[in-house]
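I am still getting used to backbone structure tokens and would like to learn alongside you. Label the sequence line and the structure token line clearly, so we can match residues to local backbone shapes. Would you write everything just below, so we can both look at the same thing?
***
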Amino acid sequence: MPVIYIINGILISMFGFDHNPSHIHVRYGEYEFTISLDDRIVKGSAPMKVINEVNNFIDSHLDELKALWEVAKNGGEIKKIKR
């Protein structure tokens, strides 16, 4: 699973050919969860500060993430998001 961004040890990834709705995969230490881009539904668990940090990341990069999702779901190259 390609890591597209790292924030303070939080690894954010996206899969190619993944299922809808659009979402990202997040790992932080022993925690793993997914979070949908549109309605921010979290599946899995992590400390609230991590989830808040990921939500802030999504807010700042939503257009890029949605564009990358379109590429990834069709099997295109998943590129890192620039800072």
Remarks:
- The mean pLDDT is 95.
